[in-house]
Sequence to fold (482 residues):
Amino acid sequence: MKLNEVLKNIHPIKIVGDAEVEITGVNIDSRRIKAGHLFIAMKGTQVDGHQFIAKAIELGGKSILCEDLPEPVGGVTYVQVASTEDAAGKVATLFYGDPSRKLKLVGVTGTNGKTTIATLLYNMFRKFGHKVGLLSTVCNYVDDQPIPADHTTPDPIELNELLAKMVEAGCEYAFMECSSHAIHQKRIGGLKFAGGLFTNLTRDHLDYHKTFENYRNAKKAFFDGLPKDAFAITNADDKNGMVMVQNTKATVKTYSTRTLADFRARILECHFEGMYLEIDGREVGVQFIGKFNVSNILAVYGAAVMLGKKPEDILLVLSTLHSVSGRLEPIRSPEGFTAIVDYAHTPDALANVLNAIHEVLDGKGHVITVCGAGGNRDKGKRPLMAQEAVRQSDRVIITSDNPRFEEPQAIINDMLAGLNDQQLRKVISIVDRKEAIRTACMMAKRGDVVLVAGKGHEDYQEIKGVKHHFDDKEVLHDIFKA
Fold:
């Protein structure tokens, strides 16, 4: 493809060199540049891609998209734009043949529930007999082919490349998580969405967004950008639900477990094995627990309806689906207590999981919670996490999560600082996560629940920049065998 063809959707300030040069690839990572590639110099949050223009040229890059023009090198074309962040997605979309217009792409955004909703939609539409793509925190899929995920939402180049692979594989639908980072950094720029779903909004990622308002506006921008022929399904039970869709051009639908809405549900029965629900007047058994999962299921149901599926067919498939790996995943111990592994890593997510556990226990057992907080992330939520754990647990063990480049004990101290003397009587801290889980299991008696929160599907601990193998589920199974 010629350079001027991939520039059709952007407005360059200046072009230095031959705009007819052939482009063999597009990349924002200078290390991946090959002969004939276009290198996009992004001003990222950690490093400035302009520093690597010379390296990209050295590796064979023949064209550069940048904000600041360097000293020209012969035989290289330079394209200056106001924002490479804004241009990257639009350029990648054209280079990969505008793949999002060749399938029905649905985005899911919000603080909690994105992975569950996107994955359930992927599994549901595959059961309907369609070829489907998935872009999620846990794993990306091109129909049945897994592709490991490094970020909730890939960079715009990788994203369009994956969507193009989905189109090539014959996928009719694709479901993707849209993180606030990805929306704010315009990683989804240039994509055409058939629909968007909003889950909920609670405190998260304030280390990046700085204020809750900025965080909310990043999510809202996704719905502001939806086209007129798309649908926008929002959670009427969340106070920000209608804020999300107030400026969208898309067809708005609502879902609720508490108030009038287009899609409604209520719990009839609840057990650790699942729930019996009424959805829009029809009864269905599902293999999930917790009121928050009723909301997730409603979002899935609503999206499937908007994508043209019959309600009775949707409910039939819903009854066969299982929870996503590491999301409220129960493991029965030989001693008669239940361990639950969950990804909850925000105060609200932790509250939701503990609420779900109490709904089933109904006062007939104790709850022992093991949790921590990630390093080099929003420090403000650490004391809130500890408070939420203490509020709904009989005992709490505060431990390491992914400390990254921070000292684990310092993170634990930040969590403990949010507790008063009375609350601290419920709490012990154990830096070693494996030992913390073992201790919780030793405390538990028949009928109790041990909640291991924070890592869910993750099979590693990140310490000082190195990922060490660590899987909460494996640890529990090993403890139960011993």
